[in-house]
Amino acid sequence: MPALPGLRSLLDLILPAECGGCGVPGTQWCARCAAELADDPVLLRPRVDPGVDVWALGPYSGPRRRAVIAAKERGRRDLAVPLGAAVAGAVSRLQQWGELDPPDLAPVVLVPAPTRPRAARARGGDPVTRIAVAAVGARRVCPALVMRRGVRDSVGLSADQRRVNLEGGVRLTRSGAGFARHLASESAAPQRTSVVLVDDVSTTGATAAESVRVLSRVGIRVGAVVVVAGVG
């Protein structure tokens, strides 16, 4: 008797039928895909400049593209672990290169890029937040941003259309407001914090630009943007 759909989905979470990056059977994430995502992060030149450097694990192709689609559209929550490890590796590399302060001087806090609440609910939670938590642990992740109602899905929009669509479309959450107060408090003064905005894909840079603007307005300075994959 074939497995029921719900049971099949549960079994896929526990024992994934194939690698989320290349489709090879019998493994969650194969060594070949892990090695590809462990390469040095690359600096992007997005069409909409967020005012800080945007780094990607690589182009939006191959295992990065397949993993992002699987995590967002096919319910592969298990992929948060290997993608989070790759993001953590990229952040560590940026610290070694001097692009971010060393961890002993400024611990890292990851801020997931904002998503539309409806989309997050449909996916059983936000995949980018899961990736961030897998990268540094829940205590080092601040869900500071969310999309306002009325923001359209950006698929198919040009760079200018994405920018206009997002103008005023990102707001600070209560967690973000609390984080801003913490950074401004005297207790935070002796030790700096490296804030890194994390997203799955950078297409035009419009989301990063609006996110950085909203955060900087309340005194949260973003040191870098790190994405799983970059388009173009």
Automatic annotation (TrEMBL):
Top-level lineage group: Bacteria
Transferase keyword on record: yes
Keyword flag Glycosyltransferase: yes
Gene Ontology MF annotations: glycosyltransferase activity
UniProt keyword terms in alphabetical order: Glycosyltransferase, Transferase
Listed name of the protein: Predicted amidophosphoribosyltransferases
